[in-house]
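Box S2. Input/output pair 1.
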Amino acid sequence: MPPKIGYLLPTRERIMEGRPETASLLKLAEKASALGFDSIWVGDSLTARPRHDPLTLLAGVAGRIPGITIGTAVLLPMLRNPVILAHQVATLDQLADGNLILGVGFAADRPNIRAEFAAAGVPFEHRIGRMLEGLRLCKALWSGQPVDWDGRWQTSQAVIGPTPARPGGPLLWIGGNLAPSLDRAGKFFDGWFPIAPSAPDFGAGLAHVRNVAREHGRAPESVSGAMYLTLSLDDDADKADDRLNQFLVQYYGQPAPPTRRRQACYAGPAAGVAEWLNTYAEAGASHLVLRFAGDHERHLEAIAKAWQT
């Protein structure tokens, strides 16, 4: 079965361009849906890489395109109070008719991200434990039953309404490529959603994740494999490569080569992109989320044509 194809809206890029209006973003989402893309995704950041709030914008997408799968790529849940987050996500899942995937991450250790945590009043240290506990509290609240919690947060017979449309709440995917990240994906999450590995490394990582799931009494195939991929398409391969490098420098504020070593990227003709994407499908990816280096309408049309042929 071919993987589903998702499209990441350029929220960060629009803020960098001084174009914060959301109408054009919603039109891109509609175009992607009309071209056959399976899902629409939004990234997350407060101050490190300013952009639109993902949950709010995805509510607009869900209202504009009924039935489309929506997702976060990726949300930093530890920046939010989990009781409030549970309420927001449950409402968003109702808007999406249960078609929400919550991709989450644990945040890299960089000065601008530490500053982001400080701005939110959240300690950077122990952020992974904070994330895991917060998500457990969210899942408890999504049950609709009264919740008593005595940890980083305290609740007494707390009940939220609505509960998510999907029983138990949305699917939870997590990224990361190091062994502890793979272990967490296998133990606790519904999907592994990295940004870095080559297709062979992805296949090996997914096998590790599913082995961990099996060791912890979970059905291995219940853990999905997904990839976050960055594309720059041009018939002139050198132009595609230059455009990708410029995009990454502007986006991250650092040289492109180290970023390209950390992230899976394709730069070249559209004629070769389907074969490259298929290497991830053959390695076990059931969902591919695509980020484009500029010219989104052209990229959407090129991917739709390449994938359908």
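Box S3. Input/output pair 2.
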Amino acid sequence: MLSKTAAKRFFVVGTALCFGAFFLLTLDTLARIPAQTNQETMTDAVVRGKHLWDTSNCMGCHTLLGEGAYYAPELTKAYSRRGPDFIAAMLRDPEAMYPGQRRMQNYDFDEGQIEDLVAFLEWVGRMDLNGFPAEPDLGEVSVPVTSTDSSVARRSDRPQVFNQMCIACHALGGQGGAVGPALDGVGGRLDADYIKRWLTDPFAIKPNSLMPKLPLSDATIVELVAFLSQLKD
């Protein structure tokens, strides 16, 4: 059994060692921050976007870097998951993206503010966060391409815009959103011309369409038409 003097010495030395360890770990963490956050790429737009994020109280609904609320989606990897076009469209008019589904407030951001917020989310998404947040364990999804061909279109083979934007509302191979119809076999139901016209302007075909007119370039539409047209039962 320790004497009072020995116990006091043990406590003081132990406390000093623990304090020293935490101090050194803190210094190591601070030294790593510039490289892990890509501090050198922090542009004026990123700073303005961070200011907008704070003043608009985005963390009142969203989580970023593990902090915030859980009412709305986590946004640390939103840029790589959804892409700049989808993010900009959501910020421009949330209700148009998910008619009757979304409760996100329209902050009436101007185009400059939208670009700043997109730049901020892009910068955050490129941080080295030691694997946080973990990638969802979705696995590879195989989708029949033709009724006679055994080849498959895996997630990694799909157009990037499909994985970022289309899958947010539509399902394919059992994965994706449920706002719009599943796209399995869509190429067997609709011809390429109809798909192209629909992607260009859904309201020109169906005035009460729930699908918004997405900010898709001509090249992106051509790529999506080619991909969707080959999805047959």
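Caption for Box S3: Strands lie at 63-64, 67-68, 171-172, 175-176. Residues 138-152 have pLDDT under 50 and may be disordered.
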